[in-house]
Amino acid sequence: xxxxxxxxxxxxxxxxxxxxxxxxxxxxxxxxxxxxxxxxxxxxxxxxxxxxxxxxxxxxxxxxxxxxxxxxxxxxxxxxxxxxxxxxxxxxxxxxxxxxxxxxxxxxxxxxxxxxxxxxxxxxxxxxxxxxxxxxxxxxxxxxxxxxxxxxxxxxxxxxxxxxxxxxxxxxxxxxxxxxxxxxxxxxxxxxxxxxxxxxxxxxxxxxxxxxxxxxx
Length: 217
Hints:
transducer, 217 residues, mainly alpha, 7tm6_olfct_rcpt
């Protein structure tokens, strides 16, 4: 029986992320499209308030600098997300091609070479994902800094709250601080996760191709 390489430890994480974001081409169409709609709504729900805020502060260079990085993240995520959808048939063909290439390997030295490149790919994708989400974790933890400092080095009054980024929901941001923060915690990891997923899938394709070239030497 032929081994399904996407169920091996080399590609299992990439496959799970692909399923999570509705981009695994072998999912039932209804399920795939429903997941895609949910992901799109989550990212859009945070991008729109940020774009509104950007328009409001368009003449304030400091505020623009604060807004642009996160807007760039969300736009980049949506661009990669829809690019994957538009090219989903090509992505499916590449996955099938990878499985066929693996099934056609006959010599043990070629199999060993592919295993070596798959290991490199797994190391790269895991390192990249850990680095990205570690940075995200530090970023998301920033609102807790005033609370921690109030405990370690209390002042006569509570320190000012830290906002993750500037947005405009047309509500009192101090009154709805917790709700806005929860919304950020729900949406930003999804936006970053889309980028990590797409980058890791391309890395997977590249390492497979490099392995084939090495085996042909």
